[in-house]
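PROTOCOL LOG
Step 1. Enter all chains and additional molecules of the complex.
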Amino acid sequence: MKKKSENFGKIKGFSIQFLPYSEIRDLGSNERIKKILKIVLGNNILILQGKLMAEEEARLIGDTMAMIGYVKNFKGIELAVISGNGNEGFFGRMRKGIVNSLSRGDLGAITIIGPATIVKEIKRNPKKIELLLNG
Amino acid sequence: MVIKIFRNFFKRIFSNIFKNKKEIKLGFYGPPNAGKTSLANRICKDFTGEGIGKISKIPHETRSVQFKEKVVIEYKGKKMLFKMIDTPGIATRIDYEKFLKYKIKKKEAKKRAKEATQGVIESIKWLDDMDLVVIVLDSTENPYNQVNITIIGNLVARKIPVLIVANKVDLKKSDIKKIEAAFPEYEVVGISARYGKNLEEFYESIFKLSKKI
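Step 2. Run joint prediction.
Step 3. Record the structure below.
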């Protein structure tokens, strides 16, 4: 019987995977991006608890750009982060800051990353988020 | 000890004398087709007589970083020296098939897509080298795009001053308020790079931000 990891990336269609922040909390930037890419390149839409650092997001964009043309049928990713709007007020921000520093990440945020072949567009406005898939 | 004090004293005096002569690296960032090259061209033409790059309706026309050195911008009697850096638009996806819609042949479209991906990588690398960044957004488009947020986040992390420009205000669909609402912590200047509208306010903001470097 094949191991589950060997079947990774051979899924026909797509699936949605949820990754709790605890899975990436103790990883360095390289390992975090590697882990995310492994999921996304396997035709999965990733829903990540929390968010990456801005530098990691830029790195992820750069790394995926470098893969276009080298990984078959890969056209890039769609990425969106949903987090607070920053209007929490002083005490709200302070509470959030304490929680974030204890958990070592912004657990109130959600990051959605999907391969561009599956995700056509992630439409955002302050009140809602729409995930449009390729038909 | 006395020599050290004198050395520091002269160093401070000389650095103050030449402080204003330093060339400020002014970067133009944003998503594809927002008007980065149009704005950079407008400024370069106004102050040097020649542009920085080619513009087009086809996205990813700028596929490598373009420079114009020693651009002296004069505004209200004040002069500042800039190195203009026009960067390729940052995107998270690039599909060569998109270029076919613009009647570009398949081979050329594939080449263009490959160059555009390299351009995005180059733009990201250049983030470290900027002194001041103008983020050019198309005011007719939805500003809640992760690319915009990622660019701003990276600039904040590097402590690089940011000015947001809402371009294409000459178009009916333009909505500056939407951009202001999306980025309430930043100054947003509405302009039309194509027609040179409201550039005075743009220069004023650039001069103001330059003091933060």
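Step 4. Note key features.
Strands of chain B lie at 24-29, 66-75, 78-86, 132-138, 162-167, 188-190.
Chain B has a mean pLDDT of 93.
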